[in-house]
Amino acid sequence: MTKALFLGILDNHDPLYEVLATRVCPQVRRPVFHVWRMSSSLVYRYREEESRVTIIGKFFRLEDALGDRALRIKGEYENLLRVRNLGFDRFPHSVARPITREEGIGLALVEEFADGCDLDHYLKKAIYRGEHPPLKEALGQLARFLSLLHAKTAQESRVDLGFVGAYFQKILHRLLAKGVVPESEAPSLWTLMDRWLNSDCLRRTENVVVHGDATPTNFIFTEDGGIVAIDLERMKDTDRAFDLGMVCGELKHAFFWRTGNPFGAEPFIHHFLRSYCDRLHHGQEGFVEITARIPFYMALTELRIARNLYLDRDYRRRLSREAFQCLKWGWKLHEKGAPV
Fold first, then answer.
1. 44 and 27, same structural domain?
2. Which of 17, 81, 299, 311 is the most exposed place for a label (fewest CB within 10 A)?
3. Phi, psi of 318 (to 5 degrees)
4. Where is the domain boundary, 81, 112, 143?
5. Is the peptide bond between 92 and the residue preceding it cis, with omega within 30 degrees of 0?
6. What's the rounded Cα separation, in Å, for the pair 219 and 200?
7. Are 187 and 272 found together in one domain?
8. Residue 230 and residue 147 share a domain
9. Are strands 117-118 and 219-221 parallel, antiparallel or unpaired?
10. What share of the chain is helix, strand, coil (3-state, %, to 5)?
11. Among the listed residues 334, 330, 339, 80, the one whose alpha carbon sits nearest the alpha carbon of residue 230
């Protein structure tokens, strides 16, 4: 669970108080809301004192109301409703329940708080305590969740990779500007990016709804054995390998960063991908077809992570080099027609 900073009691003269009192706890005569700030200054947790109801509030800055970031945050309310209407509104696979919003005060979303442990909890236990079975079980649950989401939303239309290419370029330009990726490596990276984006391997795939931000902190595993997905603001229609490659890239980073071993996550990556394909009954042919695309999205994820300033600069460079190797290795195997 994400660490939070306790801020105190919500002032009953705050315009937010009336929204929460009427929409979240109408049965409580004079509700008292305890407030915590989450990792982002735009996300807060509220717990009503008497009922113990806990919710999350997400805000956008009013001065940036039409900016890309604000529009994305405001879109999460509809994203949650869309996915819940597909059947993800009950145990064991669900997404957070949206409660209300009030854009007039910059409140993009009020949603039910999901209590439990995130995937990073199991990663730490596996890395520091050698507790591998719980991590594999959690990855199996995540694979089942994503396979169900992707299967229920599969479309006949082929993917449009325009936004993927734009996102790759944006990340790479930033890493080059900060010196994380050396200028000498830029030509090879641009060439590899173009080869991948123009390949049949990526282009001849069906559209599905993807979570879009499949990081370890965005999946909560509850005490009763369920899984709840949160933070659907980046949800979109694209290649299912976008989600799968992000999970794999995050697994690679988790072990590489904490142990220095870039190969420590391999058994767990394989377990996750195999669990996903087995759930869809794709067999070996399906496994090979999906995993052929994974190196591209893994590399994209590793480059994305390498932007983070909280990471040591030397590690960010090593992670970017790992992404470069992932692109090269994956492309060579793709050219040979070998399983990735």
1. yes
2. 81
3. -65, -40
4. 112
5. yes
6. 31
7. yes
8. yes
9. antiparallel
10. 55, 15, 30
11. 80
CA distances from 74 to 56, 63, 103, 205 (A): 14, 14, 8, 29
Can you give the residue range of the structural domain that contains 21? Answer: 5-112
89 and 20 in one domain? yes
State residue 339's pLDDT score: 44
Does the pLDDT at position 2 exceed 60? Answer: no
Longest dimension (CA), the chain: 69
User: Looking at residue 215, which CATH number applies to its domain?
Assistant: 3.90.1200.10
The model's pLDDT over 124-158, given as tens digits with 9 standing for 90+, comes to: 999 999 999 999 999 999 999 999 999 999 998 89
Q: Is the pLDDT of residue 336 over 70?
A: no
Distances (CA, A) of 108 to 25, 229, 259, 318: 19, 18, 39, 37
* CATH of residue 59: 3.30.200
Round to whole Å and give the CA distance between 321 and 185: 9
Tell me the average pLDDT across 287-304. 95
Q: In this structure, what are the phi and psi dihedrals at residue 169, rounded to the nearest 5 degrees?
A: -65, -40
For the question of whether the overall pTM of this predicted structure is more than 0.90, the answer is yes
Which of 112, 142, 164 is the endpoint of a domain?
Answer: 112
